[in-house]
Design brief:
Length: about 325
Amino acid sequence: MGESQALALRTYGSVPRMITKEDITAALERIRPHVHRTPMLTSTRLGIRARGIQLQLKCESMQRTGSFKARGALNAMLQLSSSDRSRGVVTVSAGNHAQALAWAASQVGAECITVMPEGSSQTKIRATEGYGGKVELVAGPRHKAFERAEEIARQARVMVHPFNDPRVAAGQGTVGLEVLEQCPDANTVVVPIGGGGLIAGIAVAIKENSPSTRVVGVEPVGAAAMRASLDAGSPQQVAPSTVADGLAAPMVGDLTFDAVRRYVDDVVLVTDEEILAALRDLAAYAKLIVEPAGAAATAALLSGKVSADRGSQVVAIISGGNVDLDRLKTLL
């Protein structure tokens, strides 16, 4: 592991610990009054296209701040001590975690600084600032943004890592508990992967409560840090290049890698073309406007990268809907 990756992972005590189903249950009780129980929608047309499955779409695009990230950010903020709140928090994000943490910090009266890679979505930058967050842009490879966030954290702020933090991952795992409530007969749950916080939380929540339910992760071909890590047997760093900026983490964490290795049945790769085709299909047939990252799970099903028995209940996680309207015109 390189020094830049080691810095990026040194975020919560000494070594991030594995989350438990008790952590996730506690997170749901903690955040439930403040976040949406997002809808589960059926799509018969897309289910037929995906070889006759009963397709359910878990719409985290309709969550506060436009993505699942609000869950983990708020769970982390609600556990801060009063002294930590007064110090303020810092994170690194391409956009969705930035917005979520700025919003969550405002709920507890804490100041939030987000380090974002130069070239991040202007819509996501403006939204982060609109929630009260301060944004600092960093040029160069994405791991440089992680290094800068760590530098700020050493100046007495609390680092809230976008994925390698058990408080954040437990909050994201509440999606999995809701999936089991809304679709108790789910045979397969398909989850997009960036740094791995969402799939780590969902996988623990589902496998600890319904071991027979398959959990499958999806990464873009151009940002396959988790697949590379699984193949190598340890967390790896990549240089991401994908249309799905929400999945363009340059590395996975040791916490998220460990959870995926223990609980996830498979991790598959989809191309940017398959992601954009699914984005268009979700707009045309499910009437959902999503960002490219939010279409990745559906892309894996429509492309046949993930298969399930005909007639089985399959849940695709629609992770976010924060997309620039001008960019959406070109994507469609």
